[in-house]
Write a structure and sequence with these properties.
Layout (H helix, E strand, L loop, with lengths): L7 H4 L6 H21 L20 E6 L5 E3 L2 E3 L1 H14 L4 E6 L5 H13 L5 E3 L8
Parallel strand pairs: 1-4, 4-5
Antiparallel strand pairs: 1-2, 2-3
Helix pairs in contact: 3-4
Length: about 140
């Protein structure tokens, strides 16, 4: 049976540590659960929207318009024609940079398909062209 303090001064000598222990154990459990998950985290740095001026040397532009048509060298081509043209470019200029511009209404899947076609041609240096954000 707990003793009751005789006056208010005696009550200050007894501190209930049960809530502090509960908090400590809860934090310990949270850190024990989250620490192993940090090992499998992926470091992703999103690209900035204000890019430098596009380089003119060794660059080739591929565009995907609103209707889903692919433009290569200022003419509309099919995905198979694009693959053939890029394979020829790869043999002539192996260090060329491919610049992709796509209409904002096209789905993410369409852009990924275009990037897969470029990868099949043997290019690994691909950049996405974006418009600069309006500064406020």
């Amino acid at each position: 049976m707990a003793r009751r303090p005789r006056n208010k001064q005696a009550a200050l000598n007894q501190i209930n540590v049960t809530p502090l222990l509960d908090l400590t154990f809860m934090l310990l459990i949270v850190f024990m659960i989250t620490t192993p998950l940090l090992e499998y985290a992926i470091d992703v740095t999103p690209p900035s929207m204000n890019a430098d001026v596009k380089p003119d040397e060794n660059t080739v532009s591929v565009a995907l318009n609103k209707r889903g048509e692919i433009t290569y060298d200022k003419r509309i081509v099919s995905p198979d024609e694009l693959l053939g043209n890029l394979q020829k470019l790869r043999t002539n200029t192996p260090n060329a940079v491919i610049l992709i511009s796509a209409d904002g209404t096209r789905s993410y899947n369409d852009v990924i398909d275009l990037m897969n076609t470029i990868r099949k041609a043997g290019f690994s240096n691909v950049s996405l062209i974006t418009t600069a954000e309006a500064l406020q």
